[in-house]
Amino acid sequence: MxxxxxxxxSDRQFWHSQKVLLTGHTGFKGSWLAFWLKELGAQVTGxxxxxxxxxxxFDQLQLKRLIDHRVGDxxxxxxxxxxxxxxxxxxxxxxxxxxxxxxxxxxxxATWSTNVMGTIHLLxxxxxxxxxxxxxxxxxxxxxxxxxxxxxxxxxxxxxxxDPYSSSKAAAEIAIASWRSSFCGTAPHQTPHLRVxxxxxxxxxxxxxxxxxxxxxxxxxxxxxxxxxxxxxxRATRPWQHVLExxxxxxxxxxxxxxxxEYSSAFNFGPHLEANRPVRELVExxxxxxxxxxHDQSDPHALHEASRLNLVIDKAHHQLGWAPRWDFATTVxxxxxxxxxxxxxxxxxxxxxxxxLAAFLTPSPA
Length: 366
Hints:
By secondary structure, this protein is an alpha/beta fold. The chain has helices at residues 9-16, 28-39, 57-60, 77-87, 101-106, 108-126, 164-183, 215-224, 244-257, 279-289, 314-320, 328-343, 349-361; strands spanning 19-23, 43-48, 68-71, 91-94, 133-138, 194-201, 203-205, 229-231, 237-242, 266-269, 276-278, 294-296. The strands form three sheets. The chain has a seven-stranded parallel sheet with strand order 3-2-1-4-5-6-10, with helices on both faces. Strands 7-9-11 form a three-stranded mixed sheet.
């Protein structure tokens, strides 16, 4: 097993003293972030719904034994107020959401209430704090009004959203900005030591995603059964990035927030331009590492999803010093190898995550 020796001293020093509240810690990204925070020595409290399905990364990493695991719905304001009051967090990462576009058509009200009101309930709970707290609220790259053009979206571009998921996340961004303008500051009705930023990430892939209706876990399930991968929209272009890329950005953003309120704004975290690829290319690259077949199951009457999307990440680079570390080929290779090693019994999910994190944090040769 690879040991993780490449965290900077300042990172470890900062995070070792932090009390972190993490919502959505039972999900794919939340489990990876909880794991990384524990490796950094942070004290983590998680609040989320029970993990869905088996297998799931939360169970595979045995996170219930490592963090303060709370089961609850972020649509319950009293629950959030009680947890915030009890744990007194110094850093908050808000990942809890209804994250699936197609499911949002089936449950639009639940999607809106979770993604918008759940965010507002958390922000209201944080107003009770009387100590400094850096808060990073995660939305999505789909918050922008999508014009289906080739240009990347910047943080100051108009928000929008055709489907219930995208529009609910855009609405959450508007609520976050309004709440920050109204309640963060030095006026009598404001909270002076609370700093709030939002993070908009591209499409993340990586080992341990077992969700339904996502291309990588769907592909891994098909390949493990010796079946062809079904691809709904092979021509749709997405900004593919390994899950560790935006998570590293969230961590950096929280550190910067702790130093100054000037970072209280929205930030894009996406890949380099070369990783903006059609779904077809993602699948074909995956098949280089796990041989198999795929077939096009495009449906002209399918529910609407954006077909072209990418992000401009200049702001995160210039203000936070953040940049993607892995290119498209490395991202796909690390992802597929994670599943193959676990499937073949070569390594546990924990060992694979530790290996990926160590590789990700190892400086590239000059």
